[in-house]
Amino acid sequence: MKPKLTLVGAGPGDPDLISIKGVKALKQANVILYDALIDPILLNYAKKDCQKVYVGKRAGIHSLSQEEINQLIVDYALKFGHVVRLKGGDPFVFGRGFEELLFATTNGLEIAVIPGITSAIAVPAIQGIPITSRGINESFWVLTGHTLNGKLTEDLKLAAQSSATIVILMGMTNLSNFVNIFKTLGKEKLPIAVIQNGTLENENAAIGIIDNIELLVQQKQIKNPAIIVVGKAVELRKKLYNII
Question: Which of 34, 37, 169, 236 is 20 to 30 A (C-alpha) from 44?
């Protein structure tokens, strides 16, 4: 059993959005280490004797530290062979996937990457919001809701000055701060969407403008996990669904 790590992106939530190659990796795994946002139905693809280990993190509640997860990957691979690290979305989009791969290869493991569909694009798409559209914007930014030190990223202030569509992941706790940045720039009427449980049956969305989004989020009782989408492209969904 040659020790190997396969990093698999499970997609944005809907278990049908994992890739065929990702499913094949799950079927071959001797051990699967999976995260909190993974639909448990995906684990049904595993072999009967496959070990399934939960290593999830949720809003500051961590079952294991990142260092402990890194070491677990190596330990399981050396003992059992093929380890699949199953992560939500795409592991290279704020998913610490590279850190895990680097630790694995440094410790002698063979490595492979199977990308996943990132929620930054898929979740707005399900709501009819295109990340880019001709004549509306020429770029999009995908930002983290908080940095390593817990502060707001300075990149948001730069992005807010542009015409780009801005997608903020893991940003619900800082929504008020984000809103204030746009208000300072005089963009109170800029369209914004906050989408919880994107691509799932219990998806919940508040869609409005900077001026009223906090009230709408409160009314809709939207909580984590949610993503924030800001920009003129958000308003295009009205044309798609004939919303007045």
Answer: 169
